[in-house]
């Protein structure tokens, strides 16, 4: 439901959109848009937003443009200091906007660009606001195949902030009717893990495992390496000295991204595109080649599509097999994570239907269909299954976390199969994370 441009439900006068935009620009934003709390694009976040600020009527979304050459550098310290500085700028601009509004008697709250998040909900939805969705809804850009917002003017070199306010405004944004993405596929060529498919497919697990190695689950895996090590010599076999000091750096000076090459090479946006059109070959030589030619370690889950991709595409880059720490602790989290950790390359040739019946603390009936390297997850049981799996939900989650033995679970009937076990093996191959 779109609010009428008169007075809102709290009988507060609508704020003038032009005035509010100028206020945000003066506070340091480089572009601004507005979205109603009722918009469909807010559906995924609305409950969280209203729990945080029940009075929210409008989301103010704005972008800060980054310095491009830092992001493009193969020296990741240069890129990361720009990311951290832009993050700080988002926070400072958000606080200025809120301070100005509060001084005028307008209730407002700024939200985190990235971190901190609601880590007590890990590995579920730990964020409150999906900034990219909101920015897209407000007309500040479109999502490219690299899953980043491409601003019409500033391209991919933007960070996004969101402020919640308790007023409606006189004019709201709408999505732009074109995509600034050039479909040049340079992000596909530059991605060291193969996470970005030329057909638009995105492998979340591949990107997360490498780029976020020193965040969240990757940090947890490092801690478990320490816990599992018998002594310092054993630890050094598991973790190199450079990895140890890199983790120290992330702990001391904010977490560092391992790649983000998709942003670095993107030529879209009015301010960015001239260099690309001036000489495409030179653009690739100067910006793409240093990243693809860089000798570095790529972190992969054993048996993942990323592991095979790196060996095939980047023979000069090393791979290191790790756990990405993605362990669902609830049945809902497990089911929601399936599309994110599905490895379509590992499913090649598989056509199967699985019926899951979960019992115990959490109960559910679910159908998972894998066919033509695509995944479908449905509530309840549909179709004729190749395999029926009946499992106590806690035992199943413990098995996924490698805390329970599958053999033990089968022998004690905590997990029961109806059909050939080969189908379960094939299923597991599709989800190595």
TrEMBL record:
Pfam (any one): Fer4
Annotated GO MF terms: iron-sulfur cluster binding; metal ion binding
Protein name: 4Fe-4S ferredoxin iron-sulfur binding domain-containing protein
Classification of source organism: Bacteria, Pseudomonadati, Pseudomonadota, Gammaproteobacteria, Thiotrichales
Annotated Gene3D superfamilies: 3.30.70.3270, SCP2 sterol-binding domain
Keywords: Iron, Iron-sulfur, Metal-binding
Ranges of residues in domain 4Fe-4S ferredoxin-type: 172-201
